[in-house]
Every structure is written in C-alpha cells, then in structure tokens.
C-alpha cells in the first residue's frame, strides 16, 4: 500500500484507492441523493467513486465529480471512477457502446476502471432484466472470453484506464486468465465481502494471480427486498463487532471496513448520511491487532446478502 495516497497498485501499473465510495441506492431513494452524497464524499476525502450503468445515477454522479473539478477541489486525475458493463451488453459489438453510454451520462472522457458487472449475459435491449411472458429471465448465449476481448479494446481505445470483473468465481476468472491470446488480465474482482462472508479462498486465489479483490456490501447490506434475503442477520448488530467497536472507540462500521483493509482488500463504503460518510474516512486512523483480526475471521458463516434471484438457473 502507498500510505501517502492510501492506494494499491493494479497489475497494469495504475493505482486504486483502497477506500471507495459506493453510490448504489434502492429505487425509492431520489437520484438527487447520489449527486449530494458524492459531493460530500469528495469533500470528505474520498477519491475512489464506484457506480454502474445498473444504478441509473451516472448523470448525477458525473455532475458531482465535474462540479468538484470546476470548483478546484480536485483534478480529474485525482478521481478514480469505476463503472460497470451491464449484462445486456455482453455481446462483443455492444461492449463499447455500453461504455460510451455511461461516458455520455457522466460527461467524462474516460473511466478509470470498467468491469463486467456479472458473468451472466442477458438478452440485449432496453429492459434491465428482460423476462418472458411467464416472468422468467431471458438469458443470452455469449462467450465471456469474447466479451473480455471487447473490454480489452476499450482499454486500448483509452476509454477505460483499467478493466476488471465483478461477481466472478474462481472458475470464471480462470476462463479469462487461460484464454489464448489474453492481452490484459482483469485487474480486480469486485464481490460481496464482509465478516459473515469473508471470501478467504477467493481472496487467496486472486492474490496469487495479482488480482485485487474489491469488497461491496462490506457493511452487510442496504436490505432492499428485491435483492436481499430479509431473514439474513444484520451484520452491524453482531455482538462481537459491537464489542470490538467499544474496545477501539469506533463505530461497528469502521471495524468492518478496517478488517477488509488489513486483509489487502479494497473496500467500498456506502452511505447517504453526511455524518457517516465523514466517519468512514476515519478508517485510516487506527489499526486492529492480529488477535482482533482472528476474532473477525471467526465470524465467517457464508451468509450471502445479495441473492441475485434473477440469475437462478443460469
């Protein structure tokens, strides 16, 4: 880790800030919240902003970034912006148009990181999750390696500085890594990761291949019924995390975020509350001793908050 900028090197020579600001929000949250909170996050010191075509807020997030550049708070090169290729754009000829659509909304010339959101291809079209008359998801048959080749072309064209993946398992990563004629390997794999699902095997594999693991839902989850199993336990109410928070005089959220940082995981923190956004940046002000890390490792119970019902049966 580069302590001055709190960032780590990616395999292609670029650097990613270890703490990122997540911008996903349930549909009922007004889009103006993304604008407002991204500005607060940049003011608080966040330099890594994570969004996606799926989140339907790139216009607002882009406006927040551009307004902070116009004010002189940051330069474009200070900001590390991530966007994601949605599942309906997996056909090779749709990959670049998908990225260009995001860039148009953002009104930016490039993204710092472009990642394949899920390894599952869906039928192209306007619908985010296309379904048939029985409400069944309509999948598309696309070779993930062909999608990856189109991602490589986006990097060559300068539209994305780095390219990676999200929600890939080891087997899916290996399909790309073992692809004949591979030009760029994925710099990262963004997955659900928190003390209840610590992804230790996947983390070990990614580290062995020089792939950075990026954690989303690091604080548990927003618990939106569409995506999340409502009977799942609330991570930040865990008594063990609570006891460590008391011990270190920090919030349970900071304990969960710091845990990832010390494992070599890049972590996304999502909040639309000014107080919490400012609090999350305190992740760099303390360290968890090895014994506390071991205790947190012991919380793993393979609880997955994001169930992705729509891709069942893929």
Describe this structure in words.
- The longest helix is centred in the N-terminal third of the chain and has 15 residues, at 92-106.
- Helices cover 34% and strands 15% of the residues.
- The mean pLDDT is 93.
- It has 314 residues and is an alpha/beta fold.
- It has helices spanning 32-44, 58-71, 92-106, 144-156, 170-177, 200-208, 239-248, 252-262, 274-280, 290-297, and strands at 7-9, 15-17, 19-22, 48-50, 80-85, 111-116, 160-166, 188-192, 212-216, 266-270.
- Helix 2 crosses helix 3 (92-106), helix 3 crosses helix 4 (144-156) and helix 7 (239-248) packs across helix 8.
- It has a single domain, classed as NADP-dependent oxidoreductase domain (TIM Barrel), CATH 3.20.20.100.
- An eight-stranded parallel barrel has the order 3-4-5-6-7-8-9-10, surrounded by four helices. Strands 1-2 form a two-stranded antiparallel ribbon.
- It contains ten helices and ten strands.
CATH architecture tag? Alpha-Beta Barrel
Order of helices and strands: EEEHEHEHEHEHEHEHHEHH
Spatial gap, N to C terminus: 38 Å
Residue share in β-strands: 5-15%
General form = globular
Number of domains: 1
CATH superfamily annotation? NADP-dependent oxidoreductase domain
SS element count, helices: 10
* Biggest sheet architecture: 8 strands, parallel, barrel
Mean pLDDT: 93
- What strand line-up does the widest sheet have? 3-4-5-6-7-8-9-10
Helix content: 25-40%
Radius of gyration of CA atoms, rounded to a whole number: 19 Å
Query: What is the number of strand segments?
Result: 10
């Amino acid at each position: 880790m580069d302590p001055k900028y709190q960032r780590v090197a990616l395999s292609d020579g670029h650097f990613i800030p270890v703490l990122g600001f997540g911008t996903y929000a349930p549909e009922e949250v007004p889009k103006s919240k993304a604008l407002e909170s991204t500005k607060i996050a940049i003011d608080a010191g966040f330099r890594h902003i994570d969004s996606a075509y799926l989140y339907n807020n790139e216009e607002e997030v882009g406006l927040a970034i551009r307004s902070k550049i116009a004010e002189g708070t940051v330069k474009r090169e200070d900001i590390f912006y991530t966007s994601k290729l949605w599942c309906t754009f997996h056909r090779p000829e749709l990959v670049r148009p998908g990225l260009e659509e995001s860039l148009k909304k953002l009104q930016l010339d490039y993204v710092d990181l472009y990642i394949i959101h899920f390894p599952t291809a869906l039928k192209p079209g306007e619908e985010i999750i296309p379904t048939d008359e029985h409400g069944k998801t309509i999948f598309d048959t696309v070779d993930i390696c062909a999608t990856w080749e189109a991602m490589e072309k986006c990097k060559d064209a300068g539209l994305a500085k780095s390219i990676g993946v999200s929600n890939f398992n080891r087997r899916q990563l290996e399909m790309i890594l073992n692809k004949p004629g591979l030009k760029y390997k994925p710099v990262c794999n963004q997955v659900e990761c928190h003390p209840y699902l610590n992804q230790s095997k996947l983390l070990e594999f990614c580290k062995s291949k020089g792939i950075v693991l990026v954690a989303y839902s690091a604080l548990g989850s927003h618990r939106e019924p569409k995506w999340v199993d409502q009977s799942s336990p609330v991570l930040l109410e865990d008594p063990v995390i609570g006891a460590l928070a008391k011990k270190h005089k920090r919030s349970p959220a900071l304990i969960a975020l710091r845990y990832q940082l010390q494992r070599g995981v890049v972590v996304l923190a999502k909040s639309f509350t000014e107080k919490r956004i400012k609090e999350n940046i305190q992740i760099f002000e303390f360290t968890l001793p090895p014994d506390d890390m071991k205790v947190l490792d012991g919380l793993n119970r393979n609880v997955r908050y994001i169930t992705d019902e729509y891709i069942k049966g893929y």
